[in-house]
Specification:
Rossmann fold; homotetramer; alpha/beta; seven-stranded mixed β-sheet; 16% strand; 341 residues; elongated
Chain lengths: 341, 341, 341, 341
């Protein structure tokens, strides 16, 4: 049996560990052969593949990024579609696809499975916003990097008696902000799911300052303060028409400094959160997901995605996986809010 | 309401985050007062306490160890027992106890609750061997430290074409070895739950070497090879009659070198696995457990322990928590064994 | 003898290690007493001090920031000047001052020494721009943090076939960019000392891309490309009239993307470079400088600054120390340029 | 011109950065060709080489170990000697050798240069014991790893009120112990250069304990306490007759516990100090040394070694480099001793 693997969408720590897990299990236990589609769905649509040998996955579990390359190509655009893909699979002798990607990839995989392609999914989202799995790999690494960076920023804030505003990833959900903020002891955590006014934030900042602390505000990039226009409108698109990472921290820092008169500095962590050596947690999770994907292939579980529940790896259908975004529930936010102010 | 907190047994990354979570929730939400028993049950038995203010828990979530001190004192020995403890609690005006500790602490807390003391438990075991919770705090940090150390050892092994044997914590269960070994790509993982002969290990080492790899063996301290006497018997006790950390790696390295003629080196990670800055994962988990312990106190859930299931914090009775050791199940070992050899 | 210590200007990893070194040597060897001026020269001008005991410096060598607080106050402004300061010193019984700071602090200390105050200086600049010393503490930590961040960014760049532009500290000199860029293998390093055109940078980026690399550009915040207006002019001041950190990376990324058509992303590391746990190198250097400052005090070497030359700690006069900025020499830039393109 | 590179002796963080620096400078600036001798002098003696292309050195500066492999082979033994080597060089068309190694390698290179071989040396010693250079690469990384490990051990010591004894590398000189001990705030630093009695050490431990600290003892592996037989005699050789890493920490911990009655634990850091990702400092130093070795080759400076003095890279003759071991001078030990007790 010959299996094609692809990694799609934004890169994420743990992608290579998934590939390693799948390839080693497939080769060792089942005698599978493997190819990698280059740059995500682009490689599928264009039939652009490389052979993956056992040697090629050597030591890659600790490498960030993806050895297969990635892109944001949609398999139904760019001259793609099921017939074109099918033809490439037949030509290349590929029996099944393991697609590692986020919601877009799983939605596309769902449509392709409906017309008969044999696809198994592995969930990938640094933001941890997929509802069908407890955690996705990459999230733990991102939270760890953000927490270490915030630990560093605190000593600067304390030495200068400043308020520090830190922007972390999270366009639609606030999981990274919630966890890094709790870990680092933030005096305010701001996430897309929760409307909070600048007045309220300024009050938390003032309270922390009054207790002699250097106020720490952790804000998800997708947070929009109540009564303020979206920070994404004026500078939301770059010269190539793509949405821009960042922005809210700068704006918020200015607003807070004006209202509280406490010197305030903004830092946007940006891409450092998604690159580099994955945490041990993510390597283990990703390896297990890769191996479980092979089990799904062997058992003809097409149209399913592997997922973590508690300490177990299960399978859920693409439909179920695509149900809705996993946002931060009210009780988790309230729990963190105990630390505010 | 006045709550006494204690940390008992071996130190563990995250203890201070539990204390912070409990104290901040108790003070902020419920107006509780807090004291800390010094050095675990010793402080309870002797009525030796310090006041814990909000200021005292400032920034401690990222500190390893425990600001309260710890010991291995049993509350029924050393002049202790329920009457003595009760008398101290009355004298000090303490209404309830939050006991952070492992199996010994929970068993003692169970006996004390049976005779009427008001105790809530928080599970603590670096080894992750408590059955009633998915994970315990400290485990993630230990796995991360071990994985980073093993990553370092690999480059030495590869440069010298050596086999590297690494001993990690795990006297009765192999969770740290399993996770660190999977994360680092070990060619053999040896745990107390699995009998493996030295012949089998030597074969894995030889296979890895034949494929051009520097063989990597990760062994839990409590592993005993089949047909070999326990490494703990000859040098198992130190001059004070206490069990010694380490030992199996040295012995195994010699055996493997003799059998395979591959130059082999042993490293025992030891105490570095349990000290220092906790991972973000452990800080979040520990903070949540500390807060949940306050909920249990407020709801008079005496005799229960807070526990992680999936992403939720639940309560389980001490009896349930003490049921049995959580050992590595066969399927998890088989999963890791795909990477062996 | 009673010594007052102050830390002035931007915070810097290692400040606390200087304080520890000075205080432990002074107390242990000479029986000195110590006070800390709060928030740099502000504490001197206002006579605002705290006692420093041996207990207070316990374990602080590994803490970022400064336990004394810092500010950008000038001792000749804000109601200061030699008479006011002298009066405070007499009132507080302070015999000598150890001033830890950058060029501004040393210049002020020089003027104060000229009128008879007893001051010894310890050089502090994250940017490493003081000519009289081989290295200043904090620089090594900043380079290490920047290098680790760039290592992370590379895997993202490689997975997406993007050019990554990273902005590091260095308003007037490019030492951090030079070292982090060499360590991380940058395809272009851009520093204030070297005029380079955008055309040239675009050519290096294109060359690296042609060889299959994800181009990496490391730029010091103070770099100004030839033929481009200063990035600091339009957005150089914030609402409080202070110069803004950052800016060149965003602008450069847009220019490079336009010229090369290679997808390009900017990251500004900002404050994370100057906070948090100091590297071992910086802790040793800072400790030694603190101890050497006590030697200078004991030997009445007023008006001198301690400095590193090779592996030795020497003294140089304030005049010599203030001679000129230590900029990156041409041969060091040429050396790094071997890696470009 | 065709240059052969070898890495010899124990592996060391930065070896690959030297190779990268040399190869990129040679190829880019001078059009050199490169081969690597496999496994140090073994590859020279046997004429066993691999081609080194520009692609092969891609991204290796951040990899620990050596891509060329290493061994402890002596070029005059194992069928070697100048004639055999000369013959291989002629056959392979190799014009010059860059030998990266410690004292043994430089001594061998010296003898080979004397009979006409064209060799340039690059100093390599994790222990930093070469007299002709301020620092050697690898030393900074080792000190950093040791310091981070000791930081972790402290929190365990403090929680349990224990004395922690940590053994670091340093068979003949104590530089790693000196620097890591100063950085981490050790209450005793024990190095081969300084005779100290167990009584004295026990006194320091007792003093620190009396001040409420958890005593921290950092000991170099080659330290021998006064009045105690060498710890290397009973267990100094393993089953293959090689000297064993470690030993003194265990012995010392027992002695100290017996004398002070303070619970004491030993940790031997071992191989983790020499593997893994090099620090930025070491990457920069190693890259510069590699480039400077090419300059030496181009200028026919045979029989010289590149070396760091202050911030400059110079050349010294092999004779000068081999003069004597660089041991820790008395004044540096006295400086650190201010922190003892």
């Amino acid at each position: 049996m010959k299996i094609g693997i692809l990694t799609s969408g934004g890169d994420c720590p743990g992608l290579n560990a998934v590939v390693r897990g799948a390839v080693l299990k497939g080769i060792t236990v089942h005698g599978h052969e493997f190819v990698g589609f280059r740059d995500g769905w682009r490689g599928v649509v264009q039939g652009d593949v490389i052979d993956i040998s056992r040697t090629m996955v050597r030591g890659i579990a600790k490498q960030g990024g993806t050895i297969l390359g990635t892109s944001r190509t949609n398999p139904f655009d760019n001259g793609g579609g099921p017939e074109v893909i099918e033809a490439h699979l037949v030509r290349l002798g590929i029996d099944a696809i393991i697609a590692i990607g986020g919601e877009g990839t799983l939605a596309a995989a769902n449509r392709l499975t409906d017309v008969g392609l044999k696809i198994v999914g592995v969930p990938k989202t640094v933001d941890n916003d997929l509802d069908a799995t407890d955690y996705t790999f990459g999230f733990d690494t991102a939270v760890q990097i953000a927490t270490e960076a915030i630990d560093r920023l605190r000593t600067t804030g304390e030495s200068h008696h400043r308020c520090m505003v830190v922007e972390v990833m999270g366009r639609h959900v606030g999981w990274i902000a919630l966890h890094a903020g709790m870990a680092a002891g933030a005096h305010a955590i701001l996430i897309p799911e929760q409307k909070v006014s600048v007045e309220q934030i300024a009050q938390w900042v003032t309270q922390a300052n009054a207790r002699g602390r250097a106020p720490l505000v952790v804000v998800a990039e997708g947070f929009v303060p109540e009564h303020l226009e979206s920070p994404h409108s004026p500078r939301g698109l770059d010269t190539f028409g793509r949405p821009r990472l960042g922005g809210i921290a700068d704006k918020l820092a200015q607003e807070l400094e004006t209202r509280t008169t406490i010197e305030t500095r903004a830092t946007t962590l940006g891409y450092i959160q998604r690159g580099g050596v994955p945490s041990a947690f993510d390597r283990v999770l990703a390896t297990r997901l890769g191996m479980a994907a092979i089990d799904a292939v062997v058992e003809d579980s097409w149209g399913t995605m592997v997922a973590l529940r508690g300490t177990e790896i299960l399978r859920v259908s693409f439909e179920e996986a695509l149900g809705q975004l996993k946002s931060v529930p009210q009780e988790r936010y309230d729990e963190a809010a105990v630390l505010f102010g």
